[in-house]
Write a structure and sequence with these properties.
It comes from Mycolicibacterium aromaticivorans JS19b1 = JCM 16368. This protein has 12 helices and 15 strands. The chain is of the alpha+beta class and 403 residues long.
Length: 403
């Protein structure tokens, strides 16, 4: 076990500890064994249940040592089981009522989630799991980071990388395959994201020239890194003048409205459940420095992230479902068209159409492809087939048209 830096005592020999490991800091649920020693808790040891009990008894905001506890709708529940999928956090379902997430890799603050969740709650945003509470930890140097979060459990919820891939594959399965379900899903998600941005509209400000230059410089740095990590064929595409021109366009976004948006929006952040769709994980973009994760963004950045992820879902569908490439390309365009049109129309109907300027939609979509190149090169080489296919598809749109 690594060195414990701090701990939040719960009940009955259970605690949440901040532990230093070779890979950085982690939030570790711990339980005391019969001999009095502390060990890492497993689902079933009751630490997640103990956190719910703490939240249920706490005021809306409380300070416990260097921990800040936010409690909104928590109640006591019993019975723990793990969520056994590969993910950033370690998650435990408690009593089929709540999901407790222990942060496996702590990110130095400031952290955007507490404020954004508070704003969404206050403005009645209904398309997210009901937040029960969260715990933040403040280090000695004053940085605050999220160490645990608790949300309502949505039975039957399906991750976006599953529902989107399946719907796209079904719609591309032959010339007579119906696309109605995919079109309806894309339009519904557009409505959900419009309502998300409308709920965050009170945070709106105007982008400065420095903001625009930061976006351009950030995309340029990602482009440079993607070029460095690419094979010759991909590098030839990345070194085209067209890509430099698209990226440079981000420098002209001064004067654009910005909001405290999601910041890391893609289909994997949108659950499909029997009641509709739910947006999750308001932690901001993990690839950005902490101080940038909390900064306002153009609404189009969120839209671009979701739209581009539909293309990536189509590429995944092509590999795993063996559907026709041309049909899949048409279905990908269809899904993106209905998503973006539904989003823009609904945002305008809600009275906040001024928040969305699609002029840089393609540039932010390109930035997401570049980030996928870097991610695959650094962490997951088998994922590289996705950006390798996505980049020429996006560049072809400049010839054939499309969002």
């Amino acid at each position: 076990m690594g060195g414990e830096l701090d701990s939040l005592d719960l009940i009955d020999g259970k605690r949440l500890s901040i532990v230093a490991t070779e890979d950085g800091l982690t939030a570790e649920p711990q339980v005391r064994d019969a001999g009095g020693s502390w060990r890492r808790a497993r689902p079933g040891d009751g630490v997640a249940e103990a956190l719910l009990a703490l939240l249920a008894a706490a005021p809306e905001v409380s300070e416990i040592g260097s921990f800040t506890v936010h409690s909104w709708s928590a109640r006591v529940a019993a019975g723990e089981r793990a969520i056994t999928v590969d993910q950033t956090n370690e998650s435990v379902i408690v009593g089929d009522a709540a999901v407790v997430k222990w942060a496996a890799h702590l990110q130095a603050g400031p952290h955007p989630a507490p404020r954004r969740i508070e704003i969404l709650r206050a403005n009645g945003f209904r398309h997210m799991p009901c937040p029960w509470g969260l715990v933040a930890w403040r280090s000695e140097d004053g940085d605050q980071t999220l160490v645990a979060g608790v949300d309502e459990y949505l039975p039957g919820a399906v991750d976006g990388w599953t529902w989107a891939v399946d719907l796209i594959a079904a719609a591309a399965d032959g010339p007579d395959a119906p696309a109605d379900e995919l079109v309806a899903a894309a339009a519904d998600v557009g409505t959900v994201i419009a309502e998300l941005h409308a709920a965050l509209a009170l945070t709106a400000t105007i982008a400065s020239p420095a903001d625009a230059e930061r976006w351009r410089a950030g995309a340029t740095a990602t482009l440079d890194e993607a070029r460095a990590h690419s094979d010759p064929a991909m590098r030839e595409l990345l070194e085209s003048r067209v890509i430099d021109e698209i990226v440079d366009g981000l420098g002209g976004m001064a004067g654009t409205p910005v909001i405290e948006g999601h910041g890391d929006l893609h289909v994997g952040q949108v659950l499909k459940h029997p009641g509709g769709y739910a947006v999750i994980d308001f932690d901001g973009n993990p690839v950005l420095p902490p101080a940038e994760r909390v900064l306002p963004i153009p609404a189009v950045l969120d839209v671009a992230g979701l739209a581009q992820s539909l293309t990536h879902a189509a590429i995944v569908a092509r590999r795993h479902h063996r559907v026709d490439r041309v049909a899949l390309s048409k279905v990908d365009r269809l899904a993106r068209d209905h998503f973006t049109r539904s989003y823009a129309a609904h945002l305008a109907a809600l009275g906040h159409g001024e928040l969305y300027d699609p002029a840089c939609l393609r540039a932010f979509r390109l930035q997401q492809v570049l980030r996928e190149v870097v991610y695959a090169a650094r962490h997951l080489p088998r994922w590289m087939y996705v950006p390798e296919a996505a980049l020429p598809m996006l560049l072809d749109e400049g010839i054939t048209g499309g969002p």
